[in-house]
Amino acid sequence: MTQEEFLIRLSEEVQLDRQLNVDEMLCDVPEWDSLAMLGALSVFDEIGASVEIDELENCQSIKDILQKAGFDA
Amino acid sequence: MTLKGFDITLTPLGIQEIEMVRNWRNSDKVKRYALNQEYITPEQQLNWFISLQEKEDEYFVIHVGDESVGLIWFNKRDETIETGFYIYDESRQNSLTPYKIVTLFHDYLFNQKKFAALTCKIMPDNPRAVRFNLSLGYKEIETFDTYKSYLLTYEDYKKADAKISKLLRNEKR
């Protein structure tokens, strides 16, 4: 999965009608709630990337999440 | 009955905690999503706690590690089980903590208490709660003036829980 595809899947899981972009801070995404966090875990699972829940919860930005997923964001 | 799972502990509400819970419940951030908007006095809180002894309702304080962060409960009215919870600590609300709490609680309700279905009531101006409960498998069943009613059957719980539990328990490889 490419970084672009990951962002598309993540946006779907968050139930956004737009695509998240790499420069966004999570605090600026009103829809970034516990469902979004679960959706992020789901996408990690899809691509076979593993992440500790604490690590994911400590992410402050989409870039942080991409880097946890193994992308050079 | 104390429930433990992940880093969550649910302990039965004790009399020493009712003042803490009363303060939580009277706070604007919790009260705004409650159907009863009235201020609760210490005497009312004590009377309510005493009345629980005569009912099958169960209330649990939610602990994350050593910190008390919220309250979760069910009320039993005839054969209807109505659930609810709130997390007072706002820093926990956008984390996976709500899913850990509810996963633990639903396991207790469905697999230990053997309830067949659960209901909950959500105010329409609480979209976060609607999204959350739909993801747990709840389905909207009825609309009233001030809230909508949702139902979670055992079958829908199993489907949603299979995915959620797997994700929450996925260890780093």
Give a description of the structure.
The complex is a heterodimer of chains A (73) and B (173). Chain A has one domain (3-68): ACP-like (Non-ribosomal Peptide Synthetase Peptidyl Carrier Protein, Chain A, Orthogonal Bundle), CATH 1.10.1200. Chain A contains four helices and no strands. The longest helix of chain A is centred in the middle third of the chain and has 14 residues, at 34-47. Chain A has 73 residues and is mainly alpha-helical. Chain A has helices at residues 3-13, 34-47, 53-57, 62-68. Chain B is an alpha+beta fold. Chain B has one domain (3-168): Gcn5-related N-acetyltransferase (GNAT) (Aminopeptidase, 3-Layer(aba) Sandwich), CATH 3.40.630. In chain B, 37% of the residues lie in helices and 29% in strands. Chain B contains six helices and eight strands, in the order E-E-H-H-H-E-E-E-H-E-H-E-E-H. Chain B has helices at residues 18-26, 28-31, 42-52, 97-112, 127-135, 154-168; strands at residues 3-5, 8-12, 58-64, 67-77, 80-87, 117-122, 139-143, 148-153. Chain B has a five-stranded antiparallel β-sheet, with helices on one face. In chain B, strands 6-8-7 form a three-stranded antiparallel β-sheet. In chain B, a hairpin with a 4-residue loop joins strand 7 (139-143) and strand 8. Chain B starts with a strand and ends in a 5-residue tail after the last helix. Chain A binds chain B through residues 15, 32-38, 41-42, 45, 50-53, 56-57, and chain B through 93-99, 128, 131-132, 135, 163-164, 166-168, 170-173.
